[in-house]
Design goal:
With 547 residues, the protein is an all-alpha fold. The protein has 23 helices and no strands. Helix 1 packs parallel to helix 3 and helix 4 crosses helix 15.
Length: 547
Amino acid sequence: MESVIVGANLFGAVALLLYGLGQVKDGMSRAWGARLRTGLAAGTRGGARSFAAGFVATIALQSSTATALMVASFVEKELIAPAMAQVVLLGANVGTAATAWIVALGLGWLSPLLIVAGVALSRTRSSARRGAGSAIVGIGLMLLSLHLLANATDPLRQSPALSAFLAMLENAWPVALFFAAGLAVLASSSLAIVVLILSLSATGGLSTALVIVLVLGANLGGAVPPVLATLGASASARRVTIGNLIVRAAGCAIALPLAGYGAYLMELARLSPQKLAVDAHLLFNLAVALAAFPLSPLLYRLTASLIPEEAESENGPRYLDMEALARPVAALAGAGREVMSVGDLIESMLVRALEALRGNDLSRLADISLLECRVDRIQHEIKLYVSKVGKDGMTDEDHRRARQIVDYAINLEHIGDIIEKGLHPEIAKKISLGLRFSEDGQGELGRLFAITLDNLRMAQAVFATGDAELARRLVEVKEEVRRLEKQSAECHLQRLREGRLDSIQTSSLHLDMLRDLKRINAHVASVAHPILDGSGLLIDSRIRQAV
């Protein structure tokens, strides 16, 4: 029974540490996420600045994994040079090691104060202050978890079973390395495992060499979650995370045979046993950064050879012919075909959402995020491609078509965002909680979904043909959608007045989905505006002029 209690205390302390890390990341993202992303993208024009940007972003987010995924996304969108991305991640690795070192300073007494201050901030009206409050609460919980970890691991240090296990690891460093790496993969955090090692080694229960080996394993395992998270991404994004894994694996491979010498040097330096794990963590990442920094161009060429461009052809653009850029008509025709393929992806996302809604089937939502990533990637490529089309040979009609292509691509990307960030979580919540719309409400949403799909198909035809009559019909249907949305909202409110339980339970979901479908239709109908404007069928304002 005692072992069960010890295990529960240990896992609870680790869970609290991971929860605190998550709170810091979410809070910082809400408070300063846009500034962090902008600063990270803007601060990568040189090696030293890239390193500093990765370091600062990771200190703020308390997660090198979050930084790695952000950087991979920026490389995919060509906001960061691939060679600089590897330097950013070197800074991120040092940042997470510095975070562990700061956490281990013995500031546990600050935990209650930080939690109280964070809760007070999170109750303010400002979204930035609420985010900052959540982050401060997360830091307080992390410090509290250190105290709980120390208490939870104290009985373990007297355990004969643990002593035998550690003795086995002392004589099998590769096993120890992969054991710690596996824990880091499961926790999705090298920081959490380093802190756990810190607690186990605080009273000298582990030899210095074994501490170093376990820290190496935590570093190796910490590079795996970003690789797993980008498996479905483009080749450029996967190169970033694979490159980071290669750097850490190479560092571990070199450092593992030298762990004994490293232990001797650390003991000679009389470093505090209470901070041995975080010192080793920081020294390892600083050494890897210094060694890998000048080799980042070579690393980029290596990852490019391992993951060639052809690997992303299935998910990337198919009709953007670089050789046609000097011929505007041919280039714009290819861009037009490409943007219509984005429309097909949006249709697939809507169909999956409708099938999930009708069949209460969560599996139908599984591909929506991947499809939205493809939409983002291709529409970005379309905008870059159109911007490179030779301007000298373009007629006024070509310029008009180029603007229409870019506008349609942007609107389709907005629709993808609404589906992924609006309809997807709303339908998932409805299914997960076992909620049911009223029969009338389900029918109203189903009809609006069907009209939205028809409108998207009509928009594709309008874009392809430029038919003014079809464009006029599309705008008219948009007004019909607006009327249906208002009518459904009124009917829903009437069901609430009647006290119908199914409508009460799904009220916010119903109204949110109506709003999202209405927004989607507004973006769909926008393809008709330039065609109607060119035909003289679009008035400047819908506001009636005063007499």
